Amino acid sequence: MKPKYEFANTVDWASQVLMPSFAEDWPLLPVERAEGAYLYTADGKRYLDFTSGIAVTNVGHGHPKVLAAAHAQMEKFSHSAVGITLHEPLLRLTQALTEVMPAGMDMFFFGNSGAEAVEGALKLARYVTGRPGIIAFEGSFHGRTYGAASVTSVKSKYRNHYEPFVPGVYFAPFPYPYRCPLGAEDGAVLRWSLDGIQKIFDRMIPPSQVAAILVEPVQGEGGYVIPPADFLPALRRICDEHGILLIMDEVQTGFGRTGEMFAAQVFNVRPDIMAIAKGIANGFPLSATVANHSLMQQWAAGAHGTTYGGNPIACAASLATLEVIREENLLANCRAMGIRLLEGMHQLKTRYDCIGDVRGLGLMLAMEMIVPGQDKTPDGQKAFAVLNQCLQRGLIGYMAGLQGQVVRLIPPLIVTRDQVEESLAIMDASLAACL
Ligand SMILES: Cc1ncc(COP(=O)(O)O)c(C=O)c1O
Fold first, then answer.
1. Contact between residue 61 and residue 39 where contact means Cβ atoms under 8 Å apart
2. Residue 282 C-alpha to ligand 1 middle, in angstroms?
3. What residues flank ligand 1, with Cβ below 6 Å?
């Protein structure tokens, strides 16, 4: 007999009615309410949420200012297609975004999800260059729609059975310092990646036929992989030399996550096109493809569009989110708490030899688990065991990386020093329990 729906019975019910990507994910916590950095389940337990809904609720769950802005807009109207109408939340948001985006990013196409923002970026790049080729990176994740899945290569299960993909996509190695096959000496990891791009130019598609290089400034699903500081500047130079557009997918790295508003500002590199989403409206569905107006205005009317994109409630929430980030000085908090968490994680690494690498930028932090004594063999089971132990102790993190071997921590930017210390103590106890 089929189970009957009850909130306490979520896992059984979910396995009957939700497709396995939802029903077999982890930890399927039956959340009843959320506030700040905490989630509360139906049985009254409190969890420190170091996932932030996968880098979305950057200013914390239920921030009163964001809620008030969304509520006030809802009282006026909740939908009206952009184009048929215009509305103030969207127009004000374009101004507010322009003030915080990397220089020159001043024209917008609004969508609802990260994948849509990536689709827009790919279509724009091909449209304005008239070239077919796209270079993306191994280990990338850009979303689940066809265009976005075509440039994704973090796991074959995200691609299996979906061929043929959008043609014209080539993958170069992403500079992964911990796993560089050329060794650890200076410049090796950058050379590995740039040689890969050169090989694509020499053997597969000349640079004159490449529309764009698409990159996550820090790889997300790939394992919170931070490239060397000279990687993005090198991509900028290659793009300038060959008239190729540089697309930065800042869906996960955006809105303060890395300690600056965008990772492009951390690495001090100018993109031509950006895809932004997730933290943009603190949980309300909104995204944008952004470019310089000289590029964007070549996109003729009707060449791209949407029904829901730029929803007025989401735009109002986004405006409030931007204000909260500024008023509460959350970039500074992100940097300070990120430094402390990283330092604590480095201390843990000295005590637990199953931690192969610890890395982080702002509040985008990772612990890569390996089999001790072997040559950096990734240990997804250990990562999962540690995450489960953390969960039992009231801390939720998430996994990343090809084998799920990376424990990633994505705390909200409002996280406090006490919460950081609490999370480190929980990680310590959880690692000890997994010995
Ligand atoms: C870097 C990056 N790009 C794109 C996406 C896709 O975003 P969405 O799930 O909102 O479509 C994600 C989602 O995790 C992401 O991390």
1. yes
2. 14
3. 54, 113-115, 118, 141-143, 216, 220-221, 249, 251-252, 277
